[in-house]
Amino acid sequence: MSEKLTFAYIATVMKDGSPQVTPVWFEYLDGKIKINTAKGRVKAHTLRSGVPVAMAIADPANPYRFVQVRGRVTEVTEKGARDHIDKLSHKYLGQPYPHSQPGEVRLMVTIEPTSARGMNE
């Protein structure tokens, strides 16, 4: 499903213990999942190296066909993050990322899956 234009829904835990779920663009490369966010956003605060995450990715043509992934954040970096958001934007929008704000700092987050299971109906 990583080749289709589908969103991943990533679940993290806030400092107060409440869940946070956000739709994200993603890529699956060399056994790892990469997403992107801007510094200062809620995702940037909850996605720190070592924290566990869960993701659900549904087939846009059939929402009953999905994969659930659990894993850990292995890296959060500014290096290459601007190029990465443009790469994701080309995949999803067909153009460079059009929503950058002045002074915005991008973060590329790498997630190493520890388990994956799916439903194929």
How is this structure best summarized?
The protein is mostly beta strands.
Secondary structure elements and their pairing?
Elements: E1 8-13, E2 19-24, E3 27-29, E4 32-38, H1 42-46, E5 52-59, E6 62-77, H2 81-93, E7 106-119
Antiparallel strand pairs: 1-2, 1-5, 3-4, 4-7, 5-6, 6-7
Protein traits:
7 strands; 121 residues; mainly beta; 2 helices; single chain; Pnp Oxidase, Chain A; globular; 7-stranded antiparallel β-sheet
Instruction: Enumerate the spans where pLDDT stays under 50 for 5 or more consecutive residues.
Output: none
Number of separate structural domains? 1
CATH architecture: Roll
- The CATH H-level homologous superfamily: Electron Transport, Fmn-binding Protein, Chain A
Q: Estimate the helix proportion, in percent.
A: 10-25%
- Summarize the helix and strand pattern as letters: EEEEHEEHE
Describe the overall structure.
The protein has a single domain (8-116), classed as Roll (Pnp Oxidase, Chain A). Helices cover 15% and strands 50% of the residues. The protein has helices at 42-46, 81-93, and strands spanning 8-13, 19-24, 27-29, 32-38, 52-59, 62-77, 106-119. The protein has a seven-stranded antiparallel sheet with strand order 2-1-5-6-7-4-3. A hairpin with a 2-residue loop joins strand 3 and strand 4. The longest helix has 13 residues, at 81-93. It is globular, with a radius of gyration of 14 Å.
